[in-house]
């Protein structure tokens, strides 16, 4: 997102200060509280952003993919990382150090507005996730999360179905929706029998997004 907003010359200038970086599935890119000395432009793969709640439960805040940025908040304010970032697949990107980002901003002040826009996007996402995880009706909350995943990662199929590539466990979906795994299991079993959603080995299939949309609105 950030790179796409830049002019070609500004993008080239920033990437010239970067270096290639890669992570394997399950590898920690950074952990909550660790120093925020770099930010990463994701070129390929998917990254889970999460943190532990006061009760010791993992709460997923976002999934980040190609064209998005990791770590810009801590890099800009000089504080520790606010969450964990874990590679869900093979991830490749470009890493830029804080000193180089600050030098780039000093040389191209117009880039400040782009960084602000990127930060605003993160704030909006956090607000959306808080709203979803505050929803008390479990089916509504889970349906909203599935639709959110579908909007960002889904591939359109036949008859309106949406395929979300990747391995998703019930625990993963529970962490994303703020529900216990047992609760997720109960709703997924019911939806699978009605051919609304199925959890497959390499994908999450939303067969009836229209039904999920009604559930997400609390009208079904």
UniProtKB/TrEMBL annotation:
Database matches in Pfam families: cNMP_binding, HTH_Crp_2
Record flagged with keyword Nucleotide-binding: no
GO CC terms in record: cytosol
Keyword Transmembrane: no
Keyword terms, alphabetized: DNA-binding, Kinase, Transcription, Transcription regulation, Transferase
GO molecular function annotations of the record: DNA binding; DNA-binding transcription factor activity; kinase activity
Domain (Cyclic nucleotide-binding) ranges: 2-122
Domain HTH crp-type: 136-210
Name of the protein this chain belongs to: cAMP-binding domain of CRP or a regulatory subunit of cAMP-dependent protein kinases
